[in-house]
Amino acid sequence: MAKAQPEKKEYVSLSPAEREVIAVLWDADRPMTAAKVAEELEKKTGWRLSTTRTFLKRLETKGALEIRKLPAERGAVYVPILSEEDVRVAEAESTLKKYFNGTLCGLMSCFVERKRVSDAELRQLRDIIEQQLDGKPAKPAKTGCKKRK
Fold first, then answer.
1. For tag attachment on the chain, is the N or C end more exposed, with fewer CB atoms within 10 Å?
2. CA atoms within 13 A on the CB side of 127
3. Domains, the chain, ordered by start
4. Mean pLDDT across the stretch 127-140?
């Protein structure tokens, strides 16, 4: 009998360190052992295996990843349940609710009024809005609008 997939949570709050750990799994795009995750993180952060295991356990407890036992071997691999996009959208929605009463207009007016949005970004946003109003799917972007230089 196949193992049931863990239920995907609507929103999981991740600390910056937890995002760093799960990002290793997203970047690898394959299940990894704790030792392999730790190896990658040690290059960037200097964390040891014990620290990495702590964060992996927290991520599992939060429902962001699952642990799959390896058959006929000792050990396990870690698999993200939440995608990078899931986390990004949930964090954005949480920020909107927390600081702008859930309204995108509140967020945008805050940035536009304080001149934190360039003319090029405003044009990009206009294009996205026009595509939606015309019933066309918005062009997917990894991080939304292009980053400012």
1. N
2. 12
3. 16-83 (1.10.10.10), 85-133 (1.10.4040)
4. 82
